Amino acid sequence: MARAGITVYRVWAVKHIGDTTYVAVDGGMSDNPSPALYGDHYPVRRIGRPVRVLLSPVTVVGRHCESTDRIAEGAPLPADVALGDLLAVPCTGVYTRSMASSYNAVARPPMPGVRGGAALPL
To answer: Is the Cβ–Cβ distance between 75 and 57 less than 8 Å?
Structure first.
């Protein structure tokens, strides 16, 4: 894993099945195949709104409806995680982008650069 690179996903759905909460996002194994291929584990954090509730473990899944399309299992996210929230997955840098594909006709996400706290022109 690289020390640089953050993937930002938007929550598309939250589903509770038994004791498990699934949070589906707008990406997955097409933009980050490492969890499916190598069992990589990433921290996941909600960004853009303050945490005012307890954290609870969730399984963050991708959009591809594959059993291995899981970004994180047992990720501590706020219990009020909801449709439209943004999730940041740090340290997904160097190999994530080079291994990304257009699996299931999902386009590769943009990759803006940042220097000194400001986005670089694309």
So the answer is: yes
pTM equals: 0.82
What CATH topology corresponds to 6-94? Lyase, Ornithine Decarboxylase; Chain A, domain 1 (2.40.37)
**Given 2, 6, 37, 65, the catalytic residue:** 65
Classify burial at 54, counting beta carbons within 10 Å of its beta carbon; exposed 0-12, middle 13-18, buried 19 or more.
exposed
Give the pLDDT of the chain (122 residues) as one tens digit per residue. Answer: 456 678 889 999 999 999 999 999 998 877 888 888 888 888 999 999 999 999 999 999 998 888 888 999 999 999 999 999 999 988 766 666 667 766 666 666 666 677 888 877 76
Known catalytic residue at 65: yes
DSSP H/E element including 17: strand 6-17
